[in-house]
Amino acid sequence: MKASIFDVAKRAGLSVVTVSRVLNGAGTVREKNRQKIMEAIKELDYRPSAAARSLARGKTGIIGLILTTLQDSFFDAVVKEINEALALHGYYLAVSVTREFGSDEAHYLIQEDRVDGLILLSPLEEGRLVSELKKRNIPYVIIDNQLPENTASSIAVDNYRGGYEAASHLLSLGHRNIAHLCGPELFLSTRERRSGFLDALKEAGMEPFAVEQGDYDIEFGYETARKWLADGTLPTAVFAGDDYIAIGFMNALMEAGVRVPEQLSVVGYDDQDIASRLRPFLTTVRQPSERIGLAAADMLLRKIDGKTKRSAGLKLKPELIIRQSTAARGEAN
Question: Key word Transcription regulation present in the record (predicted)?
Fold first, then answer.
């Protein structure tokens, strides 16, 4: 039998009114009581009636999410958290995987009041989408914004710090010939990670071995390593702009008999699932997918309910995860 709001109240030991306030995002509930209710909701697998709540709100009960790919474990984890957070508030998530639009028409999720709000995940056409959302007065949140003017409505990771910590880690291991393989220039995250990397080297009085730019994919890392191998010159360490670039780079080294980390250390970015499954396990910079997803859902719900008069973006800290692909220069060579 499906659990009801009364079952949740009974399990939490609180009133139905208090449960209702939590479900509606009221800020007047004590944190201790809110946690009790959230635990009861999970234990009972309670789902509010989306139809009833949508009717009461006079809205669609649907939140849209536009992203460029789901073939990415980081994106997948973020979407999962968003979906679960919105479900607890009686919303359905409509996901659109779109690389580009190719016409002057608005995206179908934006047309005809199909959604109550929209989340953009690392959008390629951010300016155009935001302009359309503002014109139609649709609440929105951007995850990993590309344009500085949209920072106030964004959930982002401190990519500068991530690049800085990656370089600092390699420097602490005694590496002096360090290269960086970065993604496309159009991404703000690319520019920030590179800037953090370069500043860490500058503070140490060093120049990078090389800074190469390409796509966030395995092929770019693989072809760069092949080129350096053919030229007979390699750095002692590489900071890759994402894990796929790092994996491609290591694949080429493995084919050539160059050992990681004994002969060359590698750091990635994102902490994709594959980073801890291939040998050697990849040292990488983890983005907090759970916190990103929850923060995006919370910010959007507050906008929809009119509880955010002035937008304020959120920047989260990344975390350096040290595994097997990096080693001290003196010990490894």
Answer: yes
pLDDT in tens, 134-152: 988 999 999 999 888 888 8
3-class secondary-structure state, position 265 = strand
Q: Which whole-number Å values give the CA distances from 296 to 38, 88, 189, 273, 293, in the listed order?
A: 18, 14, 18, 22, 5
Alpha-carbon distance values, 183 to 76, 123, 220 (Å): 20, 15, 9
pLDDT at residue 271 tops 50: yes
Identify whether the C-beta of residue 126 lies closer than 8 Å to the C-beta of residue 120. yes
The candidate with the shortest Cα–Cα distance to 322, out of 279, 273, 274, 268, is 268
SS (H, E, C) 170-219: HHHCCCCCEEEEECCCCCHHHHHHHHHHHHHHHHCCCCCCEEEECCCCHH
pLDDT (mean) for 140-169: 94
Distance CA 88, CA 37 (A): 11
Q: Report d(CA 18, CA 52) in Å as an integer.
A: 18
Residue 2's region, left for phi above 0, alpha for psi from -120 to 50, else beta, is beta
Domains and CATH numbers, the chain: 1-46 (1.10.260.40), 159-287+320-332 (3.40.50.2300)
Residue 228 CA neighbour count, 13 Å, CB half? 23
* 26 burial level (CB within 10 Å; 0-12, 13-18, 19+): middle
- Cβ burial, residue 13 (10 Å; 0-12/13-18/19+): exposed
Q: Which residues of 116-139 are buried (b: 16+ CB within 10 A; e: fewer)?
A: bbbbbbbbbbbeebbebbeeeebb
pLDDT tens digits, one per residue of 85-138: 998 888 989 988 876 655 555 677 776 667 899 999 988 888 888 998 998 899
Both tokens of residue 55? 């009717």
Asked if residues 77 and 289 have their Cβ atoms less than 8 Å apart, the reply is: yes
Residues 6+ apart with CB under 8 A from 17: none
What strands lie across the sheet with 319-321, from one edge to the other?
A: 210-213, 178-182, 237-240, 265-270, 283-286, 319-321
Say what the pTM is: 0.79
